[in-house]
Amino acid sequence: MNQEVELPDNERRRITRDGVSLAFTVGLYGTAFGAAASSSGLSPWQALALSALLFSGASQFAVVGVGVITSWSLAVTAITGALLLGTRNALYGLRMAPILQLRGIKRAVAAQITIDESTGVAISQEHLGLPAMRHGFWVTGLGVYLFWNSFTLLGALGADALGDPAQFGLDAAVPAAFLGLLWPRLKGRTPWAVGMAAAITVLILLPHAPVGVPVITSALAAVVAGWKNGGGK
Amino acid sequence: MIWATVLISSAGCFLLKYAGMAMPEAWLSSPRVQRIANLMPVALLSALVIAQTFGVGHTLTLDARAAGVAVAIVVLLLRAPFPVVVVAAAVTSALLHRL
To answer: Which range of residues forms the domain containing residue A230?
Structure first.
């Protein structure tokens, strides 16, 4: 672990600039989430609540991805999907804990903004020492939080005003959003094998199993592959 | 029911984040746990892509969504950023709905 070295002003500005521009770009996706939430019957306030309280893109899409939640079994499916997709944030927290070294309320705030982007920017400053990593984490995490929530509300209100979601192709936007989130993760043979196994699981189970069960079952592909696969990434 | 789903999933996901920060390192640092957690999004996102593209209740269908996702794949292969991918799929599907 790097020692506590002073962070020069020019590096601090560069990290701020990188973090904010990443935050803005990611925040724009919030529009797609807001629109998807609206097409699944969430009010703009419910969409915003997910962005503010859950604050993890893939998990949020999993909640609205089950469609209009009309039964408890769909609610359980939505919650389970969100939690399974959220497990990686626990690993990010584990990575960030010794860097941030926080207690109490500050730790809770940091936990809430521990996502792909804040962890990624923090870790990429490792060569500059702990203060640079912390600065990258807070700027990016808080920046994404601000933009993601603003654009969620914008997307939800916009989609509400437009009316019928299929008319504007929002029915295709949701699977395309999932694909966009999946794409950068498909690097190497193991992820491809897991993705294919999961896809086939859904195709086989969908006509027979209760709604939502096929998607949850596909998590087994990750468990099986991760359990036994040592190398070969 | 929607509010309950929103609040329960939010609370659960917060606890996952917080647990990572508060837990003793040894609990989660096993390579096996790391591998599974890293592959979990791949499995679930793949499953969601298929279910959302072809699924309607308990039947598999081929409709405007599949065309939209096909265009999304092409756009991804051209290295377009995420918002472009989503918009390209939506525009494709919207055009097919108009036909």
So the answer is: 186-233
CA distances from A16 to A49, A55, A121, B70 (A): 27, 21, 10, 37
pLDDT tens profile A68-111: 899 998 899 999 999 988 888 988 898 899 899 999 999 999 99
CA angle, A177 then A180 then A184, to 5°: 155
Look at residue B30 and tell me if it is in a domain: yes
Written as one string, the DSSP assignment of A117-161 is HHHHHHHTTGGG-HHHHHHHHHHHHHHHHHHHHHHHHHHHHHHHH
Q: Is the pTM of this model over 0.90?
A: no
| Contact call for residues A159 and A170 (beta carbons, < 8 A) | yes
User: Which neighbouring-strand residues pair with B59?
Assistant: B56
In this structure, the answer to whether residues A32 and A94 fall within a common structural domain is yes
Chain A's closest residue to B69, CA to CA, is A176
Residue A4 in any domain: the answer is no
Chain B residues close to A227, C-beta within 8 Å: 32, 35-36
> Mapping DSSP to helix (H, G, I), strand (E, B) and coil, where does residue A17 land?
helix
Whether B5 contacts A42, CB under 8 Å: no
Per residue in A42-71, pLDDT (tens digit) is 999 999 999 999 999 889 998 998 888 999
Which of 54-93 (B) contact A at CB < 8 A?
54-55, 57-60, 64-65, 67-69, 72-73, 76, 81-83, 85-93
Residue tagged 């950023």 (tokens)? B81
Which residues have C-beta within 8 Å of that of residue A48, sequence separation ≥ 6? A34, A149, A152, A153, A156
The SS3 assignment for B51 reads helix
The DSSP call for residue A41 is T
Burial grade of A93 (CB within 10 A; 0-12, 13-18, 19 or more): buried
Q: Which residues of A touch B50 (CB under 8 A)?
A: 198-199, 202-203
Does the residue B20 lie in any domain? yes
